[in-house]
Specification:
Blueprint lengths: L6 E6 L2 H14 L2 E6 L2 H10 L7 H6 L3 E4 L7 H11 L4 E4 L11 E2 L2 E2 L4 E4 L2 H10 L4 E4 L3 H12 L12 E6 L3 H9 L9 H10 L8 E7 L10 H4 L6 E3 L5 H6 L3 E4 L3 H8 L3 E4 L16 E2 L5
Parallel strand pairs: 1-2, 1-3, 3-4, 4-7, 7-8, 9-10, 9-12, 10-11, 12-13, 13-14
Antiparallel strand pairs: 5-6
Helix pairs in contact: 1-2, 1-6
């Protein structure tokens, strides 16, 4: 095994995994060689400052082990796992969610698994052990959750207070069509699209049982600006699109967090907010295991 003793190659693309890995690096001070792409680079730079970013091969050559996220939009982590295996270096992938565990490592009929799967809670450990029985599962404290609690508590005010009794809603988006098309070749594989989910919520906003004074729509980091403008224009509601403030600040400024099955909804729970899943009729059950999440379609 070659590489620098004590150095870990950190490889990530999607924002969810990057949030957990960057919090881990900051909390532990582990020496790293970074290979970051897509939204992950901005996440790491927000927490750690300027990053010396390498390609995957160079990051692994400079390290003795691999720690990566998982992505559905990129093959960078699978590439890293294969290179680590070829070099005889141990690999681990930190799962940042509770869904599609095996699918995260599959592409074009091939499964590429690391030596270890890292998870941050009991439920994730149980799911991983069931779906990936051939891999060693390691449970660690999730440092991102600790960071989120601190960031929400310290978040600056980004919006004026609403009149007493009015709700501020944060709507968190997911690129469901893109995921379905990439994974299954069918934009409607899940029985609904992200635009239909947003429309379902806006049609039934009164189900929140209090007047809504503000709806802030937060696109997923991978989505293009203006994606949801056409849907918002269909409704005479106080809805606007996020200016790009940190998720912690937008959660702190909200009373209710609404989405489909986004990790940002769990952030809402960590922040003590009411959380609602608006997967419309025809779609699957919400895959998030947290029992505090209300299902909109059960109350309309």
């Amino acid at each position: 095994m070659s590489g620098v003793d004590g150095v870990t190659a950190i490889v990530a693309h999607d924002a969810g995994g990057a949030e957990v890995l960057s919090s881990y690096v900051r909390a532990t001070g582990v020496r790293c060689a970074f290979a970051l792409a897509g939204p992950a680079l901005k996440v790491f730079e927000r927490k750690l400052g300027a990053i010396t970013n390498l390609n995957v091969a160079d990051a692994l050559a400079a390290s003795e082990r691999l720690l990566c996220g998982t992505s559905w939009q990129s093959d960078i982590e699978r590439e890293a796992i294969l290179l680590a295996r070829a070099a005889g270096k141990p690999s681990a992938a930190w799962l940042d969610h509770w869904v599609n565990y095996r699918a995260r490592f599959e592409r074009d009929g091939t499964t590429v698994l690391p030596d270890e799967i890292w998870v941050g809670d009991d439920c994730a450990r149980e799911i991983a052990a069931r779906e990936l029985p051939e891999v060693r599962i390691v449970q660690r404290e999730n440092p991102y959750f600790a960071d989120i609690r601190a960031e929400i508590a310290a978040a600056p005010a980004i919006a004026p207070r609403l009149p007493q009794g009015q709700l501020a809603v944060l709507y968190v988006c997911e690129p469901i069509r893109e995921h379905a098309l990439l994974r299954y070749g069918d934009e409607r594989h899940f029985g609904y699209t992200e635009e239909e989910a947003l429309r379902f919520f806006l049609q039934h906003v009164e189900a929140l049982s209090a007047p809504v004074g503000r709806i802030l729509v937060r696109p997923h980091p991978s989505e293009k600006a203006g994606k949801y403008d056409a849907v918002l224009k269909e409704f005479a509601l106080p809805a606007t699109t996020s200016r790009g403030d940190p998720l912690s600040a937008e959660v702190a400024a909200s009373d209710v967090v609404v989405g489909c099955a986004s990790m940002a909804m769990v952030v809402g729970l960590i922040g003590g907010k009411r959380v609602v899943s608006c997967i419309p009729p025809g779609g699957p059950a919400c895959a998030l295991p947290q029992p505090e999440i209300t299902l909109l379609r059960d109350v309309v």
